[in-house]
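Methods — Computational structure assignment.
A single polypeptide chain was analysed. Its primary sequence is given first, followed by the predicted tertiary structure written as structure tokens.
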Amino acid sequence: YPGTAGAPKLGDGVQLPGTSPTSMDDLTKLAADIGKDVKELTGALAATVGGKQGEDKINRIVDNIGRVAEALREMVESNRANVDVTTANLREFSVQIRETLARVDRILEENRPGVKGTVSNLDEVTAKLKTTTDNLNSITGKIDSGKGTIGKLLNDEETHKNLNEALTSVKAGVDSLSSTLAKANKIQLDLGFRGEYLVASKNSKSYFTLDVIPRENKFYRLEVSALPGGKRRDTTITTTTTAADGTQSVVKQDVETFEDELAFTLELGYRLKNTVLRAGLIESRGGLAIDQMLFTDRVQLSAEAWDFGRKNAQGHLKVFGRYNASPNLYVTGGVDDPLNSNGRSLFIGAGLRWKDEDIKTLLGAATFLK
């Protein structure tokens, strides 16, 4: 090693350290080791690829490489159309992007005055909001200080007291209304329709009945009936005759007429154990009635009497029985007007009834169908 150029000269007696060079024996040994490694490598290669077996391995490797190359070529060839289409789509997409950007530029350029107007409107709205905020601050300040109606309402003790008294009165009224509605909700309704066939006259009568039951042993009955011959009206015709000598004679004649009108029944009923008493109007005439309930209300025996003021006839009496085949279906039969031979007739009939629960179900179904 020649040292560094420009370095100072060594002084006298300075020893230079050094190393012994590689000897020929070392080189010979290194060459022998390399030769041994090369020999082992060539032996391994000869064992791998040498002979018939090695040749077959090399042939298989070459064949595999050939098949891989062929598969790659076929894949590229079969997807060439897709690649071309993708490239065309990308080219078309880039054109559309350019056109879209151009349209956006034109829109912005055309609407630049509108955008400026919108910004101006926003500034105006902001100013108005600021004014509104200032007004709200002023109002809340007045309320907090007790000024104005609302301020007095919130801060005046007397106003609080009056308001509480008013709310207490309202609550009492609501409680009273709730109690009234609760009582009204306890009222039960019983609707019924029946028809009767008069055997003697071969006529029929029909009835529509509504019972309003405020409590268990009391009820109000409204009934509308269609009478076979119509509703009877009594009329008195007075005829005055003057004789030649000036004397007058007065003749009165009672006439019965029948008009095609509905008759109404309005009764107040009261039940005492198994006996029911009824009184009021029966077929638009004053009357009384009694019902005897048997076998847990399964059988009913009844007698009704009304229209006691008929001319040349007894009052109208009706005696009948009723059997409740089910809660909603019943049959009835008896004798109508037995005290008068010209009106006496046996009758049979049947009817339907709907209690309160059935009516609510029907009303609910009608509301649903609507």
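Note: Residues 112-144 form the longest helix (33 residues).
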